Amino acid sequence: LVLQTVSAQQYYPMLDSINIWNYTGNMIGVSTHGEPDFPCSYPNWVYGDGSMYTGADTVINSRTYKILYNQNWSACVYGYLREDTAARKIYFLDAIGSPEILLYDFSMQIGDTISVNFPNGGGYFSSGLYRLNSITTKMITAGARKVFNLNCISCGGPTLEWVESVGNLGDVI
Questions:
Q1: What is the pLDDT of residues 25-65, one digit of tens each?
Q2: Which residues pair with 91 in a beta bridge?
Q3: Model's pTM, two decimal places?
Q4: Over the chain, what HEC string results?
Q5: Residue 8, CA atoms < 13 Å, CB-side half-sphere
Q6: Torsion angle of alpha carbons 122, 169, 47, 72, nearest 10°?
Q7: d(C-alpha 22, C-alpha 166), whole Å
Q8: CB-based contacts of 132: which residues, under 8 Å, 6+ apart?
């Protein structure tokens, strides 16, 4: 009964017309065309290029994505984000067209598992199989949001905290 109540609650989308995030860790492997140069390769908040924003929409393989730029280096396209609001999932496609990866699945239920891959080493987090242990609520500036608490069951790493409409501290968004 509790799971039905959680899944029936309103979903707050992550992507709208303007989105700005601070990139707090090199979690998602971001590839660029040709020889990677500093501003266009991996964002690094230590050097002041940690704010990212979405620009205009673009269509790739018949899917609509928001273009993801670096706020200080607007000529650099890090990749593309797409949200399936019906499925409550957010996807990332890097700038050279590698396969699309699932960033967030806000349709998960307690006990569900998901394979999470941090191709750039992960920093604080480890790649592995994560289990959703609980869904709680947190107050943020925009109001109450669901928080998905996932533990890595294959790597013993720290808990991932996905906040609906926000993302994860330390991830691309």
A1: 544 544 444 444 444 555 544 444 566 778 788 999 899 99
A2: 82, 102
A3: 0.78
A4: CHHHHHHHCCCCCCCCCCCEEECCCCCCCCCCCCCCCCCCCCCCHHHCCCEEEEEEEEEECCEEEEEEEECCCCCCEEEEEEEECCCCEEEEEECCCCCCEEEEECCCCCCCEEEECCCCCCCCCCCEEEEEEEEEEEEECCEEEEEEEEEECCCCCCCEEEECCCEECCCCC
A5: 5
A6: 120
A7: 11
A8: 108, 109, 110, 111, 112, 113, 114, 148, 149, 150
What number of residues does the chain have? 173
Tokens describing residue 107: 């349709």
Structure tokens at 73: 């280096």
